[in-house]
Amino acid sequence: MPQTAKTLKAFAGRAVLFAALWWALTGGAPASWAVGAPTVVVATLLCPGLPGGLPLRPGRGAVRFLLFFLWHSLRGGIDVASRALHPQMPLEPGFVRFRWRLPPGSARVFLADITSLLPGTLSTDLDCDSLTVHVLDLRLPFASSLRALEARVADLFGLDAPGKEG
Predict the structure, then answer these.
(1) What dihedral angle (degrees, nearest 10) is formed by the CA atoms of 98, 102, 107, 108?
(2) What do you get for the CA distance between the two ends of the chain, in Å?
(3) What is the pLDDT of residue 5?
(4) Residue 166: pLDDT above 80?
(5) Cα atoms found within 13 Å of the Cα of residue 89, Cβ hemisphere only
(6) Which class for 120: exposed (0-12), middle (13-18), buried (19 or more C-beta within 10 A)?
(7) Which of 112, 98, 105, 108 is nearest to 147 (CA)?
(8) Torsional sign, CA 78, 123, 68, 161
(9) What is the pTM of this model?
(10) DSSP reduced 3-state for 125
């Protein structure tokens, strides 16, 4: 396949990926495309490594990750809503330092990004050793939740299961 055709195919793939993401985030609202269309174009132009350079594992790895993410988003959303509606709002916010077991690269960045999409968590800093996450309640088992998420990200990227923490 000529290089121009490969470039166009990669560009089209990125555009479809970002359009699908926009559609999912906005619930498919037609009015959102006034902002969404230019956003998709800019994102497509600014991210030349996607999807060809993003080593995602198609098929079962993606399905397993999506099911895991949806389940944990639902559970987390219910937890955050119940805390917000509780008269005493039982919170103990703080920061958790999570040591990477994933190799450097796209999988780590994806883990940091996806962590921020789960209710009650926000990635605040990442470096070569760890990810710092702000959590709503330090009493919850965030370390095990983040380890489970890291294992799913490894599966999604076709990586070996992350080894034990050192």
Answers:
(1) 30
(2) 45
(3) 67
(4) no
(5) 6
(6) buried
(7) 98
(8) negative
(9) 0.60
(10) strand
- DSSP conformation class of 162: P
CA angle 69, 63, 77 (to 5 degrees): 15
Asked if 62 and 150 touch (Cβ cutoff 8 Å), the reply is no
What is the number of other CB atoms lying within 10 angstroms of the CB of residue 104? 9
Pick from 37, 49, 38: nearest CA to 13: 49
Q: 91-120 pLDDT, tens per residue?
A: 888 999 999 999 988 888 888 888 877 778
- Sequence-distant (6+) residues with CB within 8 A of 157 are 55, 56, 57, 61, 106, 107, 110
Strands of the chain (E only): list them.
Answer: 94-99, 121-126, 130-135
Q: Are 159 and 102 in contact (CB under 8 A)?
A: yes
**Tokens, residue 54:** 């993003």
Q: How far apart are CA 133 and CA 120, in angstroms?
A: 10
